[in-house]
UniProtKB/TrEMBL annotation:
<dbReference type="InterPro" id="IPR045122">
    <property type="entry name" value="Csc1-like"/>
</dbReference>
<feature type="domain" description="CSC1/OSCA1-like N-terminal transmembrane">
    <location>
        <begin position="122"/>
        <end position="231"/>
    </location>
</feature>
<feature type="domain" description="CSC1/OSCA1-like 7TM region">
    <location>
        <begin position="445"/>
        <end position="705"/>
    </location>
</feature>
<keyword id="KW-0812">Transmembrane</keyword>
<feature type="transmembrane region" description="Helical">
    <location>
        <begin position="684"/>
        <end position="707"/>
    </location>
</feature>
<feature type="transmembrane region" description="Helical">
    <location>
        <begin position="487"/>
        <end position="510"/>
    </location>
</feature>
<feature type="transmembrane region" description="Helical">
    <location>
        <begin position="531"/>
        <end position="558"/>
    </location>
</feature>
<feature type="transmembrane region" description="Helical">
    <location>
        <begin position="443"/>
        <end position="467"/>
    </location>
</feature>
<keyword id="KW-0472">Membrane</keyword>
<dbReference type="GO" id="GO:0005886">
    <property type="term" value="C:plasma membrane"/>
</dbReference>
<feature type="transmembrane region" description="Helical">
    <location>
        <begin position="719"/>
        <end position="741"/>
    </location>
</feature>
<feature type="transmembrane region" description="Helical">
    <location>
        <begin position="165"/>
        <end position="184"/>
    </location>
</feature>
<dbReference type="Pfam" id="PF13967">
    <property type="entry name" value="RSN1_TM"/>
</dbReference>
<dbReference type="InterPro" id="IPR012677">
    <property type="entry name" value="Nucleotide-bd_a/b_plait_sf"/>
</dbReference>
<feature type="transmembrane region" description="Helical">
    <location>
        <begin position="643"/>
        <end position="663"/>
    </location>
</feature>
<dbReference type="GO" id="GO:0005227">
    <property type="term" value="F:calcium-activated cation channel activity"/>
</dbReference>
<keyword id="KW-0813">Transport</keyword>
Length: 842
């Protein structure tokens, strides 16, 4: 291996040498990117790396945070149970008929509880049994897989099962590390037990020439085999299928000329081009960003008006101050000069104004197609044939690549050779508001955002950079805390590390929102991969090498004596540092996940800025966010990688790894069921998490290869480690690129019959019918909709089963959710002749 040096020469990493690389005196100090017991207290022995102090402080902080959460949950407007209270009507994607409507909560109706009555009863029972201060703990423990799956979807269950698999793995690894690796480490004599008792338990206690390192290398290979076996068993529940076996009846087609993008034209084209293929349904997408925004506001006003009507029946007419913070001012009586008005009249006038604006916005939306439509055929085979005709493939000469779409008299105008055709993603997976994003502008946006993000990550890669830049603020604070009690000064550095490590990846999530991915799966995958890679560098690799940023990593890579940095990984202080990090993550980190400070601030901020109490029901719905599988997978797999990386060189870390995974599983179990709305993602997100686990196990082998290479050179033990790595690499590359070693891979695929092709169990896209979440037929500008009175009479904006919203020309109730921007709409001209029906509000 060779690379250029700054002087223009070449530097080689000699893999044939047999002498170890000595550590230059003073390098140990250069390796430290975190405090090295600068404020060790006298409560415990100095040689334990601050672990006992950190553990006690974390337990105390965890108790305080959990008690605060219990108090907020009990007395602050059902905070922490929003998903349980509003979750039944927030999304019903996983129950009942699901179509390409884009949304699934209606503003004027809710399907009667028929087949889902058991779920509703279970929800009511869970809510009834969850009224006490601490009863939520037992309620969370009692949750069954069927309850979680029925309310939150199969993806939530897959995520929690993956965590159980990690816990099982960590228990096995902990047993092997403590029973084998720990005694081997302690058998060494390199470190004085009286001087540094913690370092005696680490790999650095072994003599560089000791053959006992073979045991660690063998355990690293055994960990890989066990991990693959457990993940293979876990993948059975995912019901994975071989690549290319999935077929849907619905196609998503983009890049259609805007002037020809209407239902009648497209139906005529398919009837002529594929006369033997029956088109069951076809819907065109339009740009209804303004419509969605107005309908969201109109829904909020209608729900507030419903609350006022209910309030006035049993009390005096409600008064309000029709300004922001009106509710807060009314209770504090801080603005006597502000005139109060009748709440019912105010919301009625506001509803009428929004109805008139919505009337004109829907008229305008009809003239703005997106060049996207969804077409459903009679059978999956028909859809596959159409997809094949519109896909680039080689001609008979084997050289030219072209498409061969069916021809019709409209082909010249439609230009189907330029269409982009693919199987439609599940309707619940689509971000309908993002379909309006243009491909060319998206590419430019992607380049600009990633350049800015890359520049930031190069110079601010680790929390150490942020902490070092804040030294002028933090140093006086640490000194003052040290005078009061050294424990607080010790704890401050760990909290700052955890906080900055949690803050920096948020930038990745925020930057990714500007990319406007079309599906939730793509958004989760993008955030998941980038966050995991960034966290892996930020928290594990760079601090382990004694580097503070990628900029420092590049400088070290091209420096003359850069190879000595690998010895930083095996310093005893590194092990203590990461043990403290996992301890803090297990207690303070999981408690912060439970409280969800940012969402709590948002919730109370919205309450404070509300005009009246009538708007609080809508605010509770706005505070119900989707669970971010991508970000959560990246976080948990990064910390799992840290634990695995140091599991053999510092075996004590595995005990706290079990504690972290157990507490993280409990907190996520609670949040998914009680605090978040369901989120639909594709199985590739779960598959990527398995790939991250395999990456962590490979890093463990790489770690011991460099350890043996640096300490012994390329001989005996190092060759044994290199052979093990080569076998692992051969299995992985053969599995990925050549379809070999299928029985040794981490995925177990389901057998597919060649005669009967099955659909995914969670693929609602195969059901026909593309009911529109927004009817672009203009509504009555007076706002006197057929279902308005029934909606207003229903208290806090809850919905009635006896007043269904109507679709285009049908009597089927449909389900919708809030905040749609670009949706599938019906362009049938016959609806204009029938008159404007009442369209569902978002």
């Amino acid at each position: 291996m060779s690379w250029n040096t700054p002087n223009g020469g070449m530097r080689f990493m000699d893999l044939t040498r047999t002498s170890p690389v000595p550590i230059v005196p003073g390098d140990e100090i250069q390796c430290r990117t975190h405090p090295n017991n600068k404020t060790i207290t006298n409560f415990f022995h100095r040689g334990y790396g601050g672990i006992p102090e950190n553990l006690i402080i974390n337990i105390c902080a965890w108790i305080i945070l959990v008690l605060s959460f219990c108090f907020a949950r009990r007395y602050f407007g059902n905070y922490g149970r929003i998903g349980l209270i509003d979750g039944v009507r927030k999304r019903s994607t996983y129950h009942g008929p699901t179509t390409y409507e884009g949304w699934s909560t209606t503003v004027c109706s809710e399907p009667a509880p028929t087949g889902d009555s058991h779920e509703l009863e279970t929800s009511q029972v869970s809510h009834t049994n969850d009224e006490g201060m601490f009863t939520w703990v037992w309620s969370t423990v009692q949750l069954s897989d069927s309850q979680i799956s029925s309310r939150c979807g199969s993806d939530a269950l897959h995520y929690l099962k993956f965590q159980r698999a990690l816990i099982l793995l960590m228990i096995v690894f902990t047993f092997l590390s403590l029973s084998i690796a720990l005694p081997v480490n302690m058998s060494g004599t390199k470190i004085d037990k009286e001087v540094n008792p913690f370092a005696v338990t680490t790999l650095s206690n072994l003599d560089p020439g000791s053959w006992l390192v073979v045991i660690h290398i063998t355990l690293s290979l055994l960990f890989f085999v066990i991990g693959i076996y457990v993940m293979r068993k876990y993948s059975v529940g995912l019901r994975l299928k071989e690549s290319g076996s999935y077929i849907s009846k619905t196609l998503m087609i983009t890049n259609v000329p805007l002037n020809m993008c209407n239902e009648d034209t497209l139906r005529s084209h398919f009837n002529q081009a594929y006369p033997d293929k029956r088109v069951e349904d076809l819907k065109v997408s339009h740009d209804t960003e303004k419509v969605a925004d107005l309908e969201k506001k109109k829904k909020a006003v209608s729900e507030a008006l419903a609350y006022v009507n209910k309030y006035n029946r049993n009390n005096k007419p409600m008064k309000m101050r029709p300004w922001k913070c009106g509710f807060l001012c009314s209770h504090l009586d801080c603005c006597d000069c502000c005139e109060t008005v009748d709440a019912r009249s105010h919301y009625q006038n506001e509803e009428g104004s929004l109805s008139r604006k919505l009337h004109w916005a829907k008229r305008k939306a009809r003239d703005n197609p997106l060049g996207i439509f969804f077409v459903t055929f009679g059978t999956p085979e028909d859809a596959q044939k159409v997809l094949k005709d519109h896909t680039l493939r080689r001609r008979g000469n084997g050289i030219s690549i072209t498409k061969n779409p069916g021809r019709s008299e409209l082909s010249t105008a439609l230009n189907p050779k330029d269409w982009k055709v693919k199987f439609a993603p599940p309707a619940a997976d689509i971000y309908w508001e993002h379909l309006r994003t243009n491909g060319k502008f998206w590419l430019l946006r992607w380049v600009v955002i990633h350049i800015i993000l890359l520049l930031f990550l190069i110079f601010f890669s680790t929390p150490s950079v942020v902490i070092n830049n804040l030294d002028f603020v933090l140093l006086p604070l640490k000194q003052e805390l040290g005078k009061i009690n050294p424990l607080f000064s010790e704890f401050l550095a760990t909290i700052l590390l955890l906080s900055t490590a949690a803050l920096l990846p948020v930038l990745i999530s925020l930057s990714d929102r500007f990319l406007s991915h079309w599906t939730r799966s793509d958004a989760n995958m993008s955030v998941m991969v980038k966050t995991f890679i960034f966290l892996l560098f930020m928290v594990l690799l760079l601090p382990s090498l004694g580097l503070v940023s990628i900029d420092a990593f590049l400088q070290w890579t091209f420096s003359v004596n850069g190879t000595t940095r690998w010895d930083c990984v095996f310093l005893p202080d590194n092990g203590a540092f990461f043990v403290n990090y996992i301890v803090t993550s297990a207690f303070v980190g999981t408690a912060m996940d439970l409280i969800r400070i940012s969402e709590l601030i948002y919730y109370f901020g919205c309450l404070a800025f509300s005009k009246s109490k009538a708007e609080h029901a809508t605010i509770r719905k706005m505070s119900l966010f989707e669970f971010g599988y991508g970000t959560q997978y990246a976080w948990i797999m990064m910390k799992f990688s840290v634990i695995i990386f140091y599991s053999l060189s510092c075996p004590i870390i595995t005990m706290f790894g079990v504690v972290y995974l157990g507490m993280k599983h409990f907190v996520d179990r609670y949040n998914i069921y009680y605090a978040y709305a369901p989120s639909k993602i594709k199985k590739k997100v779960h598959i990527t998490a398995i790939n991250f686990l395999v990456t962590a196990l490979c890093l463990l082998q790489l770690c011991f290869f460099f350890f043996s290479f640096l300490r012994r050179g390329l001989r005996d033990v190092t060759i044994y480690s290199l052979v093990g790595m080569a076998v692992t690499a051969a299995v992985i590359f053969g599995y990925i690129f050549f379809n070999l070693f299928r029985k040794f891979g981490p995925f177990l695929y389901k057998e597919i019959s060649t005669e009967v092709r099955e659909e995914p169990e969670d693929a609602p896209e195969n059901q026909i019918g593309y009911n529109s979440p927004y009817d672009v037929c203009p509504v009555d500008p007076s706002g006197s909709n057929d279902n308005s009175q029934s909606e207003r009479d229903n208290g806090e904006g809850t919905v009635l089963a006896n007043s269904p919203c109507r679709t285009y020309g049908t009597d089927q109730p449909i389900d919708l959710v809030e905040d749609n921007r670009a949706v599938v709409i019906d362009m049938r001209r016959t609806q204009e002749e029938r008159g404007y029906q009442n369209g569902p509000d978002g």
